[in-house]
Amino acid sequence: MYFKEPLSVVNVANSLVKADAGKYFLGESEFLNVGRMNLAWTGLINPYNSGVNLYLDIFVSSNMSPENMLAKIWFCSIVPPTGKISPKVTSANLAYQPKPIPRGQIQSGEGVNPAISAGTAVSTRLILASTTVTSEKHGHWIIGPGTCILFSYVSQGTNNAHAVMAFGWWEECVHQL
Questions:
Q1: Which residue among 8, 53, 138, 158 is the one 20 to 30 A from 77 at the CA level?
Q2: Distance between CA 30 and CA 25 in Å, rounded?
Q3: CA separation for the pair 172, 54 (Å, rounded)
């Protein structure tokens, strides 16, 4: 009988590979003031001329108030015409100098947005007071140029709720068929 050493198997997460290549980005939205009658929204936006697809890896929604919030996730085929672009976005690989610049954007705003009206609601979630909800998509949600994934929020209480949203994604060049 021969004794063989066992093979070593290493499972490397795709997000680690993308971060090592300087293609993984993360950031958070501006602070959202969510009213009962005032819709607030935020999202991961892929501009029309980006030349890349965005692969959503993770999103984290934090409700920092004593009021529950109702959140809806929308797949949108148009980019919001208005919205504040968050400056709080960076490469996940701090070793790169200069740092890679993401083409994807995190935007947020208040009120009904035409992109939401034209989008498809794909999920509704209740975010309880003073909680954080995390969802890992591992790149299964792909945002092409000129499209976005938006999250709309409405307070379920009598007072305004306060939220912030964080995203992690990687970017790959769009390949022409």
A1: 138
A2: 17
A3: 7
Do residues 23 and 169 lie in contact, with contact meaning Cβ atoms separated by under 8 Å?
Answer: no
Q: 144, 142, 164: which is closest to 63 by C-alpha? A: 164
**Tens-level pLDDT at each residue, the chain (177 residues):** 566 777 777 777 888 899 999 999 999 999 999 988 778 999 999 999 999 999 999 999 999 999 999 999 999 998 888 899 999 999 999 999 999 999 999 999 988 777 888 899 999 999 999 999 999 999 999 999 999 999 999 999 888 899 999 999 999 999 754
